[in-house]
Fold this protein.
Amino acid sequence: MTQTIHLFGDIPTVITIIKEHLAREIGPFITVSVGVSYNKLLAKLASKKNKPNGLFVITPENRRTVYAISSLEDICGIGNNIKKRLNINGIYTLHHLEKTPLIKLITEFGKIEGIFLKNIGLGIDNDEIIFYTDIPSVKSLSRNYSFDKNEYNQRFILQNIYELSEDIARRLRSLNKKAKTIRFSLRGNRIECGQRTFLSHTSSGKNIFIACRDFYKQWKWNNLFFPEQGMVRVISILVENFIINSETISLFQKDRDEKALTEAIDILNKRFGDYTIRKGFLLNAKKLKIVSNGYLADKHERTKLALESQISI
């Protein structure tokens, strides 16, 4: 907004113009609470502070004061499971998070999540603002799942790995992409990470799962003599090194049948909801609720919206 002040006036003036437009075009039935700050993280927090139909501004000068009256769950990106794990580590407030050493957060949550949480504590967010009709550059897709308790049931763990693999593959196909590299990690009483490059690019959930399962066996996660070593708290899968999924017709009938089956399942799941049709291995398994952090926080969802917007134009 800073670069448009000379066009529309200061922040309160711009917000007033937006509210007047809404009232005029929609009526008084929908109100808007606006948060303004110097980064997206704090602007989202500010939007919760003066509801309904209010305006709240967070500046570098009042940020710590606002943190003092905010809870961990007020921050976009800290859900109930993350909050519980923070509490176990003696972190109950945003000020506690700010003072917690980075190495402690990395030990508990891993490098990426640990740095993310530390930046939250410091009020840092360097993500750029992307207009919703701009197609973001998707260089990787990842899915993480945190159990709400220490999980020792190995079949249940493998079912969750399979579900995440299928979810990533479905998103790859919806973006018309294939991936060649996979990164997989399990975190529990120990932390194991592995990376594999496929011989050819893939968008198959089965192929992604087999790679993850190979690591699972290699790490001897299902150790009958030391079952405590098989505990899992977090599953992480990432795929990268993409190419556009160009149409190629296989010479083998089996491959053509599998491709047709996958396309049919994708159509049905898109129409009737994710996981309407699932693999037999997932029989009786709970359906994962994979939720992005905030409205259109997921690049996959933003890309779909951007493409749909361009088509409509």
Observations:
- Strands lie at 34-36, 55-57, 140-151, 177-188, 191-202, 232-244.
- The longest helix spans residues 154-174.
